[in-house]
User: Which sequence fits this backbone?
């Protein structure tokens, strides 16, 4: 047996569970039996080297007997809101109710452990779970579904406008080897509901972890969700996230995805605008340095008339950092009066940094306003000269230019504590940029 | 009476860009407190000279030397020159996306203060200083809230340069065509900024194509630059003569 086959056997075995499983889990098990790892021959994975995921046989935390009593002290300043957010902590993929703070939540709003909601056969949950995932599915998605255990379940009832953001802190840590966390989130905003969701992925120390997560987000008519996502995990962490967003009439989805951590990270947004007047805004900032690969995979599908979307992704690459931007906006034949603008800009700070960028518009309708554009550049020496001529030391001038480049993306973070936190992280990461990156 | 101590002394300066010689033996002596105007045809090397003084790395000095405050200027980095009081108001100020103008001004001012061993200015102290400076220049604070020069009109960019000059209080200010493309009000603000800074310790080099700036800022010397050298030096009457006759009578004489 080759290493890959052994690994496949390991994951297939994991997916076989003794307890009864949901139909969608059965399907996922089947998928696993029939498919291998995604590889470069698949277009969606063409630029994404998979090696870092295949170097270890990752095992779910619950099967590894990894138990650490977490307290809020251990989390340090990773939780960003004090009284300004509802807080949920997820540790190695498992919902931590003792660390979560949802006091004051309007009674009809649900923020729950997915495990509990599943056990209670929550109707809304059962009606939505697995309805979006599956599009562009790969083995790791199937693994998440087959193993499905825990995560966060959020339901905001019709017309309810949440007063504070929901902050989800994901931390991971492994003592005894290659650990896999497989959180599974489900977010349902009913008609006219409004909420803000902040997800923060961090590590408690640098250990060998693989976060293999899936989120499904349902936005009913007129619902509005701000969704900020910060991936700032440790240098050994692997992060694979598949997010599925489905939008009904005149709903709004505002996403900001900041990805700067991990050894290997791939974030997929599958966003479908299914009814007229829906709007989706995707802002993204990725950063990769030595030994990091960061992959952003964006798929926005305009399936109804009069929808708008805007996708703006920016990347800063240092050292031998590598990134992939793979953005597709597809406009169906019926999606007339679509407005869609897709752009990707990259700043390469060293000769060895590398970006593969592939923005694609696929348009079948004829009455649309769409555009796409890509830039790849270096720090403009004239900007540097200007700042230095004003007495600003060279390294600080470089930092200012990079922060300025990222500025419009950071500004889309609508929750000030997160915006400040991200600004601080960027300042740190961009502190020592030299002429050679 | 003029001060006699030399602030800047440029001797037989030759500089090139991409191996193309541009400055071809330039001499200039600027004493403390003096204002020198440099005029000359397009492409004669005025901006090149200004850039060399500020330390632009595209320009290679192949011969000659520059002394500033007794030091070899060419040994200093761009930022060290700024710390020691050299200020270049750019002919074409660049746009810096995403960098707030106010933050930029404060960062620059504090970088210079730190280099001089002074404490950084707190945000409120800085605000006070900038308000005062704006008031003196009769400028409003609209430009402070925006990204540095981004989307500024030509005149607004020039005004922003003057604001920086007034804020940083340089020893040697080099204004590269700061008067070009300005409306009458902006021109007055520039003149005001310059005249406010006039001081026996402070010197200026004004690169200009027009006599009108020199009406409100009286230079001690007017130089004509042609083909990378200073070919004629006079007082402000030279500027009037140039306005009248153009450059050819000088450059032709030179060629002859
Ligand atoms: N970075 C550069 N690369 C190539 N050529 C340059 C560069 N900088 C200056 N030059 C050339 O050097 C010569 C002098 O240019 P410079 O900008 O110094 O002229 P100037 O006297 O300031 O002209 P103007 O009055 O039009 O501003 C010109 O021929 C110009 O094209
Ligand atoms: Mg010029």
Assistant:
């Amino acid at each position: 047996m080759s290493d890959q086959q052994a690994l496949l056997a390991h994951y297939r075995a994991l997916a076989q569970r003794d307890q009864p499983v949901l139909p969608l889990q059965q399907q996922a098990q089947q998928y696993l039996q029939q498919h291998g790892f995604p590889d470069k021959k698949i277009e969606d994975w063409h630029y994404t080297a998979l090696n870092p995921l295949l170097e270890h046989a990752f095992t779910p935390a619950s099967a590894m007997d990894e138990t650490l009593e977490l307290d809020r002290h251990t989390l340090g300043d990773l939780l960003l809101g004090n009284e300004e957010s509802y807080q949920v902590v997820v540790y190695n993929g498992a919902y931590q109710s003792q660390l979560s703070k949802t006091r004051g939540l309007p009674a009809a709003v649900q923020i729950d452990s997915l495990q509990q909601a599943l056990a209670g056969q929550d109707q809304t949950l059962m009606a939505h779970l697995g309805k979006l995932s599956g599009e562009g599915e790969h083995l790791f998605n199937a693994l998440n579904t087959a193993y499905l255990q825990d995560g966060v379940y959020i339901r905001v009832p019709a017309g309810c406008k949440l007063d504070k953001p929901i902050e989800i802190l994901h931390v991971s840590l492994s003592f005894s080897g290659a650990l896999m966390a497989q959180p599974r989130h489900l977010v349902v905003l009913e008609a006219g509901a409004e909420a803000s969701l902040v997800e923060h992925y961090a590590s408690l120390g640098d250990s060998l972890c693989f976060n293999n997560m899936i989120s499904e987000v349902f936005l009913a008519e007129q619902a509005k969700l701000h969704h900020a996502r910060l991936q700032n995990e440790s240098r050994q962490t692997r992060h694979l996230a598949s997010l599925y967003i489905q939008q009904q009439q005149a709903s709004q989805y505002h996403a900001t995805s900041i990805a700067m951590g991990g050894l290997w990270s791939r974030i997929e947004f599958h966003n479908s605008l299914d009814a007229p007047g829906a709007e989706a805004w995707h802002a993204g900032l990725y950063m990769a340095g030595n030994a990091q690969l960061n992959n952003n995979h964006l798929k926005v599908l305009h399936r109804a008339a009069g929808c708008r979307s805007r996708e703006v992704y920016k990347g800063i690459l240092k050292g031998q950092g590598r990134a992939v931007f793979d953005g597709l906006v597809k406009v169906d034949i019926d999606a007339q009066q679509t407005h869609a603008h897709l752009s990707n800009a990259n700043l390469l700070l060293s000769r060895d940094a590398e970006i593969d960028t592939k923005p694609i518009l696929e348009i079948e309708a004829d009455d649309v306003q769409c555009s796409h554009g890509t830039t790849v550049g270096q720090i403009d020496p004239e900007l540097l000269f200007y700042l230095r001529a004003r007495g600003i030391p060279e390294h600080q001038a470089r930092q200012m230019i990079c922060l300025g480049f990222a500025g419009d993306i950071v500004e889309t973070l609508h929750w000030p504590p997160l915006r400040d936190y991200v600004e601080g992280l960027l300042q740190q990461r961009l502190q020592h940029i030299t002429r050679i990156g | 009476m003029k001060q006699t101590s030399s602030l800047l002394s440029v001797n037989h300066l030759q500089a090139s860009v991409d191996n193309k010689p541009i400055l071809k033996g330039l001499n200039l002596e600027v004493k403390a407190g003096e204002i020198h105007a440099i005029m000359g045809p397009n492409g004669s090397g005025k901006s090149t000279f200004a850039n060399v003084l500020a330390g632009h790395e595209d320009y290679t000095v192949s011969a000659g030397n520059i002394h500033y405050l007794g030091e070899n200027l060419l040994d200093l980095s761009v930022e060290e020159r700024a710390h020691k009081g050299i200020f270049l108001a750019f002919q074409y100020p660049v746009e810096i996306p995403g960098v707030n103008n106010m933050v930029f001004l404060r960062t620059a001012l504090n970088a210079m203060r730190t280099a001089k061993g002074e404490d950084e200015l707190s945000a409120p102290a800085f605000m006070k200083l900038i308000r005062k400076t704006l008031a003196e220049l009769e400028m409003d604070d609209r430009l402070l809230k925006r990204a540095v020069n981004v989307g500024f009109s030509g005149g607004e960019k020039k005004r922003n340069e003057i604001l920086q000059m007034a804020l940083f209080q340089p020893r040697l200010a080099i204004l590269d065509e700061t008067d070009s493309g300005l409306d009458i009000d902006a021109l007055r603000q520039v003149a005001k900024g310059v005249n406010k800074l006039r001081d026996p310790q402070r010197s200026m080099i004004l690169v200009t194509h027009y006599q009108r700036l020199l009406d409100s800022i009286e230079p001690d010397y007017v130089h004509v630059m042609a083909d990378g050298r200073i070919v004629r030096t006079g007082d402000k009457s030279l500027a009037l003569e140039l306005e009248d006759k153009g450059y050819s009578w000088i450059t032709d004489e030179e060629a002859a």
In short: The first strand of chain B starts at residue 6 and ends at 17. The interface with chain A takes residues 54-58, 77-79, 81-83, 87-88, 90, 93-94, 96-99, 104, 107-108, 111-112, 115, 147, 164, 168 of chain B (CB under 8 Å). The mean pLDDT of chain B is 92. Residues 3-96+154-255 of chain B form a domain with the Rossmann fold fold (CATH 3.40.50.300).
